[in-house]
Amino acid sequence: xxxLLVILGPTATGKTDLALKVxxxxxxxxxxxxSRQVYKxxxxxxxxxxxxxxxxxxxxGFWIVDDVKIWLYDIADSKIRYTxxxxxxxANYVLNQITSSGKLPIIVGGTxxxxxxxxxxxxxxxxxxxxxxxxxxxxxxxxxxxxxxxNLSEEAFAKLNxxxxxxxxxxxxxxxxxxxxxxINKNQKIEVKSKKFKILKVGLTTFRQELNKxxxxxxxSRLNQGLIDEAQRLHQQGxxxxxxxxxxxxxxxxxxxxxxxxxxxxxxxxxKNKIHQYAKRQMTWFKRDKDIKWFDIxxxxxxxxxxxxxxxxxxxS
RNA sequence: CCGGAGAUGGUGGAGUGGUCAAUCACACCAGACUGUAAAUCUGGCGGCUUAGCCUACGCAAGUUCGAAUCUUGCUCUCCGGA
Length: 317
Known about the structure:
Elements: E1 3-8, H1 15-26, E2 28-33, E3 56-59, E4 62-65, E5 68-71, H2 84-100, E6 104-109, H3 112-120, H4 131-138, H5 142-152, H6 154-159, H7 168-180, H8 193-196, E7 198-205, H9 208-225, H10 227-236, H11 241-247, H12 249-258, H13 264-287, E8 293-296, H14 302-315
Parallel strand pairs: 1-6, 1-7, 2-5, 2-6, 7-8
Antiparallel strand pairs: 3-4, 4-5
This protein binds one RNA strand of 82 nucleotides through residues 11, 34-36, 45-46, 81-88, 110-114, 116-117, 120-125, 127-129, 161-170, 173, 176-177, 246-252, 270, 273-275, 277-278, 280-282, 284-285.
């Protein structure tokens, strides 16, 4: 059976570094699984630009970093929202390419939803967003959205968990789905990668406090790499502040900074906190997946351990 | 040294006699999440033997049935004047 390696974990744990090493030794190619690295020109803030002095060659649809192909960088326009559905299509395409060339595909990323969608498939992918409906629902209060969904389907509302039943965005999507259900073919096939591939999931993490320290250091190094210049350039090229805020984390606070709402000290302080929180959310998501084999990146023998673990899996059957 | 303002929970900052363990925001902790996912949302957040009790709004002493809220003294901080 074809093998598929997945390297995942919260931000700032060195997933790509590990992937590059493994790709070299096992003749692999990397598929990024990151909801923000897909956007063209968001290089420093999304961590596409390696911090070490590695060679980088940008090509259409992929980068070559240190002689290793990394797919799914720069495939979207940062001004336009890209979503899971597109990711799954794009990633499937690339996955087939790599597989048919006989190489080892290595999925690297921290976007849990994208990864899950790719590996397990999603049943609702056939139903795209409905801009007209969304605009109509956009400014309704929570209670109205809840009522609308109940009217459409009492069952659908009941299926939402407590947190989601108060989440406008989820309610909107659920309404959207239920409006469309009568008109779609429910027998669409869901491709499930986990059945086609022999998958190894490797998780990289460490203790919260240590992780936070790494995040802080990384932010400082991104600032040195020219993070602010990058944002300024993007803004000049027409990326609105509003859109930057939607992109989250560095770009959200960069927008505040460019607008003069916060100074550099506040920028760093607030952003660091937000990235810490983000890392925590990533862990919350990944913790549920019991197939992940976790490694502590601060363990003295970390490198040796993961690399051996991966090699053993690769060489076995 | 004189005049003025103020000291509230990890932080900012409400509250000016009872319904205050104290609005709210941030931070923090935990969680959810199948088309915005770096997004969005939920719960918790003084302590405990947790339908109750204890300790708390700078410190101390008072007034009152009752004080974070009123009075007096002390300590400290900030602003203005010497």
